[in-house]
Amino acid sequence: MNEIAQLSKKIAAFREATGMPGFLAGIYRGGEQAVVAHGVANVATGTPMHENTGFLFGSITKIMTTTLVLQQVERGVLDLDTPVTAYLPEFRLAEPGAAEKIRVRHLVTHTSGIDADLFFPDAAGPNALKVYVERLGRECGALFEPGEYVSYSNGGMIVAGRLLEVVTGTPYHELLERDVFAPTGMTSSCTSAERAILRATAIGHFPAVTGEVRPTGMFTLPRTWGPAGGTPIGTIEDLLAFGRVHLGDGTAPSGARVLSTESVARMGSVTHDMGTPDSSPVGMGWLVRRLGGTTVLTMTGASPGGVAVLAVLPERDLVFAAYGNDARALELHDDILLWLAGQFGEVETPVYAPEPVDLRPYAGTYRSDQLRVDVRVVDGELEEQVTYEPADEAQERIFTGFVGGSFTAPPLRYVPIGKGLFAPAGMPLEGLPSHYLVSYHGETAYRCSGGRMTRRTPA
C-alpha cells in the first residue's frame, strides 16, 4: 500500500519534533490494509508500541452507541421520533419539563441540549448508568431546546446507553460486546481495564514544560461514561473493521451484517449544521465533513493523556484509524486526514481576515455544567477567562485526572473575523484549524468553542 510509507515518515517526523511517546495508525483501502506502530506504549516501562497494542477508543465509542441504537430501530424496539421518557421514565433533568421534550434522535445527533458535558459521577458495577441518570435528574439542566442547536454531548450518549439497557434488558457493556464487537470481528476489544491488562495495552501521557512526558495516573474514566467513550479498549485492526461496516452496506469484513444499508446511510447523512466553521455538521453519531471533494465521516476519541481517531471515506472505500498516547497527536491526526483527503481533490485552505465588529454585545458571562467563561472587551479585542467550577471533590478528581492536572487557563484574546466568529489574537489566520475558533449564536445568547455551547447568564 503506497500510503503506508508516507504515513510512517509523517509519524516519525512528528514524534521527532514533539517527543510524543508512541503512535499507531492503520489504513484500509479497496481491499488492502496495513497497520504501523512507532515508539513506546508506556514510558514508565519502555514497552514498545506493536501493531496489535490496545488503547482506549474514547469518544469513537459514540459511533458504536449510535450503531446499537439504530439496530434497535431496525428491530422496531425504538423509534427515533419518540420521546426518551416513553422508554425511560426515570429520565429527568433538573429543569422541570426539559427531559420530556427530548426525543431519541436528539441523543445521537448532539442536539438534546442536556447540560452535562463535564458531569462525571463516579459509580461502578452493573447499575453505573442507572446511577448516572438518577443523578442527572437532580444535578443537570438543559442548555437549549432540543434540536435548536448542536452541542457535543457526552450526556446524550450516556442517556442513550441507559435507554439501550432498559429496552434490551442487557447491560450496556455486554450489549456492546455482543452486538458490535462480536459480529464486527473486533476480537481484541473489551470494556474493562482488568481484561485489557492481560494483553499489550498503551497508556496516555502528559507533556511537561521541560519537554519530557509523564504517564497518566488514571487509565479509564468511570463506568458511568462507558457509552460516551470512557471504558472500551481495542486495537487499530478492530477500529478498521468497525469502520468498514460504515463504508456502505453495513456488513463486517466477515460478511456478518451489523446494520442495514439504510441505517448506515442515515448515520452518515447530515442532520444538523450550525453554519460556522468551528462546529462540524453532524449526522447520527458521526461528524460529517467534505474534504478534497469527498465525504469524510469522523470521530475523535480523547482519553486520559491519549487521543484516537476514526475516519471513513465511503465514496473512496477508505478507512483510517490512529491513536497517539499524547494529546498532541490530535495535530498529527488532522494533518494525516487532510493528506489522505487531498489525494482525491484539492483541500481548500481556510483564509480568514479581521473584520470591524462592535464587540460590546459579546461581553458577559457564559456558563455550562461546571464551566464559566467571562468575556470582556480589552484594547479592541475580546478577552476570555475560562474557569472550571467543580461540583464536588469526586468530579474534580476525575476531571483533573482526565486533563492531567489542575485545570487553570490564562485569559485569551480573540479578534473578530466575521459577525459572531472570532480567532485567537496573534495567530496566523491562513489555514487556522477550526478548533481554535469561537462563535456566538442566537445573537449573543450562546458561545460555542470546540463544538460545545455555553449559555449567557443574566447580568
List keywords for this structure.
459 residues; alpha+beta; Beta-lactamase; eight-stranded antiparallel β-barrel; globular
Short description:
By secondary structure, the protein is an alpha+beta fold. It is built from 12 helices and 19 strands. The strands form 4 sheets. Strands 12-13-14-15-16-17-18-19 form an 8-stranded antiparallel β-barrel. Strands 3-2-1-11-10-9-8 form a 7-stranded antiparallel sheet, sandwiched between helices. A two-stranded antiparallel ribbon has the order 4-7.
Strand proportion: 15-25%
Largest sheet: 8 strands, antiparallel, barrel
How many E-type strands?
19
The DSSP helix count reads 12
As laid out across the biggest beta sheet, the strand order is: 12-13-14-15-16-17-18-19
Mean pLDDT: 95
The radius of gyration over CA amounts to 21 Å
Domain count: the total is 2
Show unreliable segments. none
What is the CATH topology assignment of the largest domain? Beta-lactamase
Q: Name the overall outline.
A: globular
- The CATH superfamily label of the largest domain reads DD-peptidase/beta-lactamase superfamily
Q: In CATH's first tier, which class of the largest domain applies?
A: Alpha Beta
Structural class: alpha+beta
Helix content: 25-40%
Distance between the termini: 59 Å
Keywords: Hydrolase
GO molecular function, one term: hydrolase activity
Protein name: Serine hydrolase
Organism: Amycolatopsis keratiniphila subsp. keratiniphila
